[in-house]
Each structure stands twice: as C-alpha cells, then as structure tokens.
Please model this.
Amino acid sequence: MTTPFPVPAPPGPDTPVVDAQPYGFPLDLATTALVLIDMQRDFVEPGGFGESLGNDVAQLAGVVPVLKGVLEAARAAGLLVVHTREGHLPDLSDCPPAKLLRGKPSARIGDPGPNGRILVRGEKGHDIVDDLYPVDGEPVVDKPGKGAFYATGFGDLLRERGITRLVVTGVTTEVCVHTTVREANDRGYECLVLSDCVGSYFPAFQQVGLEMVAAQGGIFGWTAPAAAFLAALAAASAPALSTT
Ligand code: C5J
Model:
C-alpha cells in the first residue's frame, strides 16, 4: 500500500535517543533535518516587525547563542539544515489584507524602517541574523505565512531528501514554530522542538506553547533542551566501535 505520508523508519537498536518529553525521540541522521524558523532581524532585533507590534525583542536574545551551538553541531554531523524566513514580495501581492491591516502597529508590513521595508523580501531586516546565517547548500524557504508548508516548496524539499523527522527551532514559539509543527504533524512528520532554541516575546506563551506540543502523549510532537539533543547527536556521530 502506498501512503501520501512520510514513513519514519523504525529506530534500529543502535539509534541514539534524545531524552525528550513525553518520551525518547530517536535521532537518525539520514532522515532528520534541523529547521530554523524565521531567525530574522525583523523578529530578533530592534526596528523590525516584532518591535513594531509592541514586543520587547530582548526576550528572544537568549535563543541565538544556544541555537548557534546546535547549528554548528548539526553541520558538523552532516544533518540537513533548513532555514525559513517570513516575508512578502515588494508589491505585497502575497500579503493578505487581513494581515497587512490588522491591529495598530507603530509601522506596517512594507513601511520603511531602520533595516529597510518591514518584512519585505530582499531587505536587510528580512534576512537572517549573522550568527545563524545559512552556509552554501543550506536551503532557505521563503514563506508568506506563519507555517513553513503553506505556499512554499518546503514539503517537496523534505520529500525529495527522504526526511521524516524535524528538529524545530526558531521564533516565535507560539506563532511560526507552532504553526509549522502543527502543519508538519498533520503531514506525518515527527517533530522535536528544542525548548531553549525557540523563543517568545511572552514568557507565559513560551512555557505553555512548549507544554502544548508534548501534552497528551505528544499530541504535536516532542520537546527537549538543546543539551539533550546535542548528547544524542554526539552519540549518532561517533564512529561505531569495532568488534574485531
Ligand atoms: C510572527 C513568527 N510572530 N515568525 N512570526 O509574527 O513567529
């Protein structure tokens, strides 16, 4: 029987397991991707979209150094790394009026800001922060919405590479991270969210957003701190011990 869903291979006896909630997450390097959601100046630095909505962007600062360590370890282990960026075409034709006109921000999408037009592709503010900048060969998925699957090639990219499990990081926890994890879950992917590599402007949302992922036996997926992921990654990357 064929299935439209990715089929995660059952973990072998030697597959390292991330110590996660609600239970261990098997880490198979060949079928797992590290996903960095929207680590853009527009969300993480002053003068961008996040701040225009009235948020304190300093709340996200702690994510960058921890995620940098995870990114470097993932690259060294040969894991597929995928970056996403939320943003719109310069003519805003891909921005729903409801998104453009909602609320009373200090500046709207497309307005000029210190890093160029807010949340517009090609502008400095739309790009990824220096510490986490993609290297050659790492796909960057530009998305107009909150989820990485909507109106993008993300699903095709994962399918073509045989990816069935996602280690999800980035900002913000309850918005683009959650939307992507929910989209992925419905499409059959298994998602591990790294709790100290995702960030919210709202401490309460950070806590409950993570709890919501792993509650009910892992209704959307798994959560674990970066250290637990790094320990399993080190085990997965270690050369097999010779028995001869
Ligand atoms: C938001 C995002 N918060 N990347 N976008 O509007 O989470």
